[in-house]
Amino acid sequence: MVRGISPGAIKYGVPPLLAGFLLTPVSGPFGLGLVALGIAAVLFHRDPAREPPESGYVAPADGSVSVIREEEGRIRVGVFMNVTDVHVNRAPASGTVESVTHRPGANKPAFTKDSDRNERVDIDCGEFEVSLIAGWFARRIHPYIEEGDALERGERLGHISFGSRADVLLPERVEFADLRVKEGENVTAGESVVAVDPAA
User: Fold this and answer.
1) Rounded distance, CA 154 to CA 190, Å?
2) What is the CA 177 to chain-centroid distance, rounded?
3) Which end of the chain has a smaller Cβ tally under 10 Å, C or N?
């Protein structure tokens, strides 16, 4: 992994950049268009360093809080990433990965209720779970971790190319009073606290 960018930058950015540089002398506008496309892909896959706080459950993604709801006694907080947000996802808290499960599905817009049936990768860490959910244009979920890995708060979990949503399903002991965000609020992956742990 190149510092400052996620692996998707190489896959999606380098080919149009190379093609653009080769074609620009022959077909200026088309070549320059490819160069611009490649630069946009590299910028989209940027991966800035983050400084997680010492406690609390942090946002799994950059973006806007689009989901806060209770599911079978647990609270789910979902963050919608638009095209201008960083798309590298991070661990909400420390823990051990118990399973990483890919689930095929639809590709509805990630900010809608229908996106609950989208293609996704669920990362179960026992007390909490993270779901990386593909959007209508995002068809590529790239987890970096696997079963048995030990995670630190704010550690990189993976990235989703081109628009998506990331959710954290909090432990049963976390109540609505412990939340530190509301729907529509902008958060930063690995840094913004979405909930405090009452057991801490």
Assistant:
1) 4
2) 25
3) C
Query: HSE of 147 in the Cβ direction (CA atoms, 13 Å)?
Result: 5
Residues facing residue 164 across a β-bridge: 81, 134
Give me the tens of pLDDT residue by residue for the chain, a chain 200 residues long. 555 666 655 666 567 667 767 767 777 777 777 667 666 666 666 788 999 999 999 999 999 999 999 999 999 999 999 888 888 999 999 999 999 999 876 555 545 555 566 788 999 999 999 999 986 655 578 899 999 999 999 999 998 876 689 999 999 999 999 999 999 999 999 999 999 999 88
Q: Confirm whether 52 is domain-assigned.
A: no
Give the amino acid at 94. Answer: S
177, part of any domain: yes
The range of the structural domain enclosing residue 17 comes to: 4-47
CATH of the domain at 150: 2.70.70.10
- Active site annotation includes 192: no
**Catalytic choice (66, 161, 164, 192):** 164
Which pair of tokens denotes residue 154?
């704010």
Matching residue, tokens 């995670």 = 151
Q: What is the dihedral of CA 159, 165, 169, 170, to 10 degrees?
A: 80
